[in-house]
Amino acid sequence: MVEIAAQIGDTLSDIPDGARLMIGGFGGSGAPIELIHALIDRFNTTGQPKNLTVINNNAGNGGVGIAAMISAGMVAKMVCSFPRSADAVAFGTAYMNGDIELELVPQGTLAERIRAGGAGIPAFYTPTSFGTDLAIGKATEEFEGKMYVRERWLKADFALIKAECADRLGNLTYRMAARNFAPLMAMAAEVTIAQTRTLLDPGGIDPQEVITQGIFVDRLIAVPSPEQEEALVRDEVNYA
Amino acid sequence: MTLPKLTGAQIAWRAAQDIEDGAYVNLGIGLPERIAQFQPEGRTVTYHTENGVLGFGDAPAPGQEDWDLINAGKKAITIKPGASFFNHADSFAMVRGGHLDLAVLGAYQVAENGDLANWSVGSKGVPAVGGAMDLVHGAKRVAVITDHVTKDGKPKLMRECTLPLTGKACVTRIYTSLAVLDITPMGFVLREKVPGVSFDQLQTVTGAPLHIDETVQDLKAPEV
């Protein structure tokens, strides 16, 4: 059953300290900026939630989104593939000061670990990272003459994602390359919260066009004119 | 001694000549991305980017960027007719599953057995790997384009990599500012070299033995 929230803050009020959050997006495309900023608002008002583990491809850019969560002191650990970029100052500063933990995961392994988490597959083998520093301590096995590394599923308490279009049953579509990790995260989280530009009645999305099925979605909030993270970063916006 | 050498754009041009009609290709961030602009006339090449786009085209005109339409380097792109979007797990199924014909990456070091180091220069700073460790597995051919030596003149082609590895025995061909080489069970086999650089001069700036198993061609590229 999908809850349709009236206020964005209502969708986030039960995220506790120490929660594991998957946040959709690759760079600025697909970043659910309004959900993230509403969570920061809650932290600024109540001091919660903190000590979060955030799972995203990157570690925030500029002064908005995940970068603003890190600057606010809400994030204890990042699980990501690429925390380094020209604008990743918030993460870089926290990391060099020893204030944040990093689990670095190759991008395809990150995607597949999340997919496995959502699909009920506790572990799988991949050729990625075999023989490298990122495979240290992991089991390996030979299949048909080639070596593979065993990787574990990745699950979360909550997923925050950005949809282009939703119906009231939680079926979702995405805009262009903003899809990236969102369909996987929607499957892998206990509670999936989606912001959507458009909210339609059932039947409003052609069943053939549905990308994420409503069974994977728990809460919806309509955000009719969402901000684009990359545009905010280029405008040097700081959310505090 | 300064050797005559190709520019970065010329290395990209040379690599582009080997991309066959109909190929599915992933180009790494930086110098490899420039290969697309030198795609020979009359060939159809479909480019893949890790963040879920197949069939993208040139950058949009300034002011026309749509930031939901970017490549793995977070640069704005456009799409061609017949393009498709997909999620990250499907994107890396294309990579690891052997569906790409070619992946082209940059390199800090390449070893004579095809080991590649291109993601970390050691312990300083924030580590970041992105899709490099995935891209080196699965593509039918994994090529590297790079300057032949480091900025301070040290060999990048070595017996063994000294920097952290991206993948083991994964590179099949290398395009450098001085030569084109294949990785074979023998090691580095020289296919082409810049005219005006002797075999001995090339060996001096290469950290592992160069082998020759057929005629070495001249490596030439137009002014680009």
The CATH topology of chain B comes to Glutaconate Coenzyme A-transferase
Strand content of chain B: 25-35%
Number of helices of chain A: 6
Which regions of chain B are unreliable across 5 or more consecutive residues at pLDDT < 50? none
Structure summary, number of beta strands of chain A: 12
Largest interface: A-B, 53 and 38 residues
CA-CA gap between termini of chain B: 25 Å
Protein name (chain A): 3-oxoacid CoA-transferase subunit A
InterPro entries (chain A): 3-oxoacid_CoA-transf_A (IPR012792), CoA_trans_fam_I (IPR004165), CoA_transf_BS (IPR004163)
Family (chain A): Belongs to the 3-oxoacid CoA-transferase subunit A family.
GO molecular function (chain A): CoA-transferase activity
Description:
Chain A has 240 residues and is an alpha/beta fold. Chain A has one domain: Glutaconate Coenzyme A-transferase (3-Layer(aba) Sandwich), CATH 3.40.1080. Chain A is built from 6 helices and 12 strands. The longest helix of chain A is centred in the N-terminal third of the chain and has 14 residues. The two termini of chain A are 34 Å apart. Chain B is an alpha/beta fold and 224 residues long. Chain B has one domain: Glutaconate Coenzyme A-transferase (3-Layer(aba) Sandwich), CATH 3.40.1080.10. In chain B, the strands form 2 sheets. In chain B, strands 1, 2, 3, 4, 5, 8, 10, 11, 12, 13 and 14 form an 11-stranded mixed beta sheet that branches. Chain B has a 3-stranded mixed beta sheet with strand order 7-6-9, with no helix packed on it. Chain B is globular, with a radius of gyration of 17 Å. Chain B starts with 7 loop residues before the first helix and ends in a 6-residue tail after the last strand.
